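Appendix B. Chain record.
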Amino acid sequence: MTRVAILEQPGQPLALGTITLAKPGPREVLIRTRACGLCHSDLHFIDGAYPHPMPCVPGHEAAGVVEEVGSEVRTVKPGDHVVTCLSAFCGHCEFCVTGRMALCPGGETKRRKDEAPRLARAGEQVHQMLNLSALSEAMLIHEHACVAIDRDMPLDRAAVIGCAVTTGAGAVFNAARLVPGETVAVIGCGGVGLAAINAAKIAGAGRIIAADPVAEKRALAQVLGATDVVDALSDTAAEEIVALTKGGVDHAIEAVGRPASAELAVKVLRRGGTATILGMMPLDCKVGLGALDLLGGKRLQGALMGMNRFPVDLPRLVDFYLRGLLDLDTIIAERISLDQVNEGFQKMRDGHHARSVVVFD
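Structure tokens predicted for this chain:
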């Protein structure tokens, strides 16, 4: 039996319980979970903003150790330290072969409906969330949902690379393709936004402006490389950012998932600038550019999971941490047990800090 946090119904606290995991199929990997970060994307499902079959096990930002592999697994082996990633990929669809693995529909990485489910309770299926279900002592996943990393990497820090850092840093390196000297505004200084700020510093951005309504998060942003900070809820936030950069930024990265933040990202662009939206917006939300924005050559794009190529990107991010370039210690606000998972999500709702990480014994 495996101890997990289960979402029985949207809007309810997670319930602690046990499930059974199936034996690994030919392309599947059984992982002993060591750490799982709490991500705002989980909250969208927990609070009912995004639909998902119930009951299910949330959690998608994790690291652990491989215990068992299926007969056809070639990418990892028992004993490997791994980081998981929700953007499981098939490896041969149009998106995969053109280098856009984050967009892979990933249907082949899931079990068929006529197969036994990966997760079950009393003989009934427990649904797997985002290919992982990492708020669990163990995970059973497709081999293309994890990658082996350097064993010197602390697994509690490695966990946040699986989503927050992959998304935030990927927005800078892969989606925005920031050129040294360019200016960037990051709107929202949670885990994803802080990772984007850190990545912009690594990439050599000329000026990095962090916008967040919480003073403590603005202070964290400065530790991670922000050159300037702005209260995102100020009536003059856009004007302040445009004035600081003498006309607007080359890149604006929205890392919150709120329509007002996306509007701010568009407002602060200079001519030819690009706004990259990372946050999970309300499903009925529309974000756009005005006629003058289009005439000024401004661009608006989404970047699912930072448009990552995680088998390549994640080991590089681990290397950045081990070399002292990537600051994951500042992003992690607290380490908690699985018993404290609901308190951790409540702190996220309250906006108190960047990241809570559940650590398993």
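Further analysis of this model is presented in Appendix C.
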